[in-house]
Design goal:
Elements: E1 2-11, H1 15-26, E2 32-36, E3 41-48, E4 51-58, H2 64-72, E5 75-83, H3 86-95, E6 106-108, E7 112-117, E8 127-132
Enzyme class: isomerase
Domain VOC: 4-132
Family: Belongs to the methylmalonyl-CoA epimerase family.
Amino acid sequence: MFTNLEHLGLAVQDLEAATTLYTALLGLAPYKRETVESEGVDTVFFQVGGSKIELLGGTTPDSAITKFVAKKGEGIHHVAFEVDDIRAEMQRLRAEGFTLLNEEPKRGADNKLVCFVHPKSAHGVLVELCQSIKE
């Protein structure tokens, strides 16, 4: 079950410049910076009320974020929703006819298991499912 809007992912060309801009815009500092090597991305998270903003900067020329910015420019990359049971949601969404980009959940940023729904299945929006990892 979807429990809340977890975060908006924003693809940016220059992560440091975007971090400075969003710090000024939101009037608060990011609470976390993290590299996700497997995705070729550096992330910066801001907590805004009950939701988050995730800035994403590509770290390699072939990363999905670098390619996204080159093709579409900076902006909203994905919308992420928190789920209670990511595997059950993946199964439910497949049964509903959605195309998932992941066969199994993978470890993402901010201590989450993640899976993505293909934008063609969601009116052009890349949707991320997130489940907190309990360690």
